[in-house]
Amino acid sequence: MAKRVEAVNDFVVKFANVNGSGSASANELFARSILRMGVPVSSRNIFPSNIQGLPTWYEVRVNERGYQGRRGGVDLTVAMNPETWAQDVREIEPGGYLFYDNSKPLPQSKFRDDVNVIGVPLTEICNASYSDARQRQLFKNIIYVGALSALLEIDPNEIERLFSEQFKGKEALLQSNIKALRLGRDYVLQHLPCPLGIRVRRASAVGNRIFVDGNSATALGAVYGGATVCAWYPITPSSSLAEAFIHHCQKYRVDPATGNHRYAIVQAEDELASIGIAIGAGWNGARAFTCTSGPGISLMQEFIGLAYFAEVPVVIIDVQRGGPSTGMPTRTQQSDLLACAYASHGDTKHVLLFPEDPTECFEFGAQAFDLADRLQTPVFVMTDLDIGMNTRLSDPFQWDDTRALDRGKVMSYEDLEAGKDFGRYLDVDGDGIPYRTYPGTHPTRGAFFTRGTTKDRYARYSEAGPDYVDNMQRLLRKFDTAKAMVPKPLLRPAARPARFGAVYYGSTSAAMQEALDVLSDRGIHVNALRVRGFPFQDEIADFVASHPWVFVVEQNRDAQLKTLLVNEAKVNPARLISVLHYDGTPITARYIVEQIAQHAAARTVLPFRKAAS
Amino acid sequence: MTYIAKPKLHHPTLGKNQLGYTRRDYEGTISTLCAGCGHDSISAAIVQACWELDIEPHRVAKLSGIGCSSKTPTYFLGNSHGFNSVHGRMPSVVTGANLANRDLIYLGVSGDGDSASIGLGQFAHCLRRGVNMVYIVENNGVYGLTKGQFSATADKGSKSKRGVTNTEEAVDMIGLALMVGATFVARSFSGDKKQLVPLIKAAIEHRGAAFLDVISPCVAFNNHAGSTKSYDYVREHNEAVNRLDFIEGKEEITADYAPGELVEVTQHDGSVLRLRKLAPDYDPTDRLKAMSHLQERAAAGEVVTGLLYIKPDSVDLHEYLNTVKTPLTQLNERELCPGSVMLERINAALR
Questions:
Q1: Which structural domain range is residue A433 located in?
Q2: Is the same domain home to A316 and A421?
Q3: Taking the mean position of all CA atoms in its chain, how far away is CA B54?
Q4: Which domains does chain B have, with CATH numbers?
Q5: Does residue A204 sit within a domain?
Q6: What is the pLDDT at residue B281?
Q7: Residues B233-251: b if buried by 16+ CB within 10 A, e if exposed
Q8: Torsion (CA) B64, B70, B73, B74 in degrees, nearest 10
């Protein structure tokens, strides 16, 4: 008998399934039932670029302390895919558990001595109860959820309550699901010792948090931020963002009196058209956005330069995935930073926002439109597949009803009528931001010609060098103004005075919180700064300057944030140590701890030169 | 000097339209194109059409791509907002602009390089979507700004100024427009203002995607013997299928027409297009017959002009999308933002 992993409210379950087998909803049901018991979970889909047939995994981390990052390692594997059996069995921690369908006997060589095996004849139970092939397929998933509920002491009433919410008004479906759940649960209770060494115990650690995916949250932010025009082209992992926007608009943006839509959404022919439509709408005074992923960003380059130079507000949401080229379309990375920060030819710099979770996806998803209008420039919301496509336990969304849309500097008919001097590219206020007019404002004043070519302060075509330089300098001033507007970095100071600093951003946040705690327990104290926007505020450079060594933790090969920090915040590169993770899986706390601990051990003695500097 | 303001002075007897504007009020800055360029005649026709239709200049948005033709919006409608975007992408920018504010008139100006080569995709998709706009291609079969390369509308077998024979098939923009569902398709010649001005007016009045292919000779690079886009060639081979005489209101028919010579088409806004037939069997509301007629005449070396196709009960993108009548740009916070109470409900549903 293998030893048993013993843990209450702190373990990892991984489901190995076949894509298209209907497992996704059963697995999410499993995760939600634990949440309903007041125990935080974080779940992640690991899926192939495929509709049916290839392997797919769903990993649920149960953690009462609320750590949302991927932990690494697996305590219980639900092995439903023979094709990946060997790999799935290999990943289990010593003393962990292997749950499988034992309807057909498997040779002893397929198992591990140090893993506890739980066989449940799922196919047998299913075939005895259902005759329809599709039903057998779908209910097999619910049967294993029932079996797991007994093994892990999940309250079956919570699962049944979730069923009744999901199948409201569909009594037949409700009853058949409850039946399947009980089939699995009853079998296990009669035939196997329950519970396992890992189990769920009711707690109150969830609070008022919500369980939502980042793409849906960003799309809702766009609705609250007043976006009216969306143009998009299907690309994983951003398609569900556009689809969520459609869904939200159908619910919250229909004129109750007429049934007409207060929005326009176009699925364009490609990403070039998507960004073109968004720019056309932004130029004409609507709040417009497109959502895409890395390859789409590459295609949009020329247009992004036009919007920067012609100063057209537009929001681009980049749900990042593994690149380059088609790369790993269904895996996560933070590898578009440089492509977005300097998107297009010529001298360009763009505003970037880095949300850490669905809550910030909502906030930044709305704020991006204010920033774009205020700064009259493209604004990028940099999420990724890990945040975008996984449901995550997050703080509830908040909205202040007194908040008005900041439409920025727009000259009205009255302004023009009163004779105010209008120069489209005239820096009236010294902040680099000029005034604009919407087309159709005034019969004889305020019209101008927008172009990607050089122009003077009154938008007149000019090929004169001084006009060009004047304009480019003003764009720099404008970018400087943006520093004070983008979200500020957040400092998480170490419990004790620390020689090490760490800078991180976006979806790394969840694993980082946990890593910092673990490091602190081991006596390695790190001050951590989460960067939330670009251009960088001065406190980021100050933070780096106040530590002999600063870890820059990110999910790409080339240390893209580090490059930006050196290039734009002018920090000393000698102080920066990169911690990089880019295999397409979300970074784990274990990985960060291991990397930082190694580097820290090598730097226990402060070099003389650094100490003196 | 590339920016020259035109003097505002004009002759006191210059005619005014119902808004009290003279034609001069619809002009832009002085053209920087070559003297004799067909594009300048098209600009003049646009000025004339807008003046005659009593359009307030600031209610027009003029957008273009890149190239000689795309420079022209600077040279007309100086009180309209203009947007010289990127090469071949005017259609997407117009689509977005139109979605943002359905109350303006959208004039997209492009060329054969812009729309038949780099922008062929956007050209087709914009028309098939039914964006309410006038899409003018100033078609000269040649790249002017880059000095004389063939464009995708140059006919197979035609010769460049340097004497090179084009071996590639021409992209038939009219044929494409008909195929992808443009609801107004016309071809004209920059040298025939009498034909062109009424066509532009009808296109402006049309609801939906109105496409106008205007053969517009390039005097610098494509006006020689061996070209099929020269003034001489087009004049010799121009076969107009009809003449558009009136378009606004239903005026009494005063001229004498032989029976069957006149076709009337009523558009969604009540304006009536009176077409004097030149080709006896040509029916501009029959898309399939129009397509085969055009193919036949093109094979015979003719350049068919006139109002080639019109769908009187056309629908535009806003109708397909069921957008509100108020321009999206004018919606306020209350209409756009669901508010905190609703957000609390959304939160509750996510627990």
A1: 409-486
A2: no
A3: 18
A4: 23-334 (3.40.50.970)
A5: no
A6: 82
A7: bbeebbebbbbbbbbbeee
A8: 120
Do the domain assignments include residue A207? no
Residue of chain A whose alpha carbon sits nearest to that of B128 = A269
Which residues from A are below 8 Å from B97, CB to CB? 280-281, 283-284, 439
* Entry pTM: 0.95
Cβ contact A229–B325 (<8 Å): no
Residue with tokens 């609250």: A224
Which stretch of DSSP H or E encloses residue A232?
Answer: strand A229-232
Structural domain ending residue among the three candidates A486, A516, A531: A486
In this complex, the residue of A258, A264, A452 whose CB is nearest that of residue B328 is A264
pLDDT band at B254 (very low <50, low <70, confident <90, very high): low
* A226, two tokens: 């007043």
Q: In this structure, what are the phi and psi dihedrals at residue A229, rounded to the nearest 5 degrees?
A: -120, 130
State which of A486, A509, A538 marks the end of a domain.
Answer: A486
The chain-wide mean pLDDT, for chain B, equals 92
C-alpha of A30 from chain center: 22
Shortest distance, CA B238 to any CA of chain A (angstroms): 35
Residue A55 lies in a domain: yes
Any idea what DSSP says for residue B6? P
A546 inside 8 A of chain B by CB: no
Q: What pLDDT was estimated at residue B255?
A: 55
**Domain co-membership, A144 together with A69:** yes
Which positions ≥6 away from A543 have C-beta within 8 Å? Answer: A489, A491, A501, A503, A527, A529, A550
* Inter-residue contact A319 to A384 (CB < 8 Å): yes
Domain presence at residue A160: yes
The residue behind tokens 């697995």 is A27
**Contacting A residues, span 398-427, partner chain B, CB-CB under 8 Å:** 398-401, 404-405
Q: From CA A532, how far away is CA A542, in angstroms rounded? A: 16
Contact B120, B171 (CB under 8 A): yes
Q: Decide: B136 and B214 in contact? Cβ < 8 Å.
A: yes
Q: Please write the tens of the pLDDT for every residue from B18-34.
A: 999 999 999 999 999 99
Q: Which amino acid is at A88?
A: D
In angstroms, how far apart are the furthest CA atoms of chain A? 89
Which segment of A131-135, A496-500, A546-550 scores lowest on mean pLDDT? Answer: A131-135
B81/A450 touch (CB, cutoff 8 Å), yes or no? yes
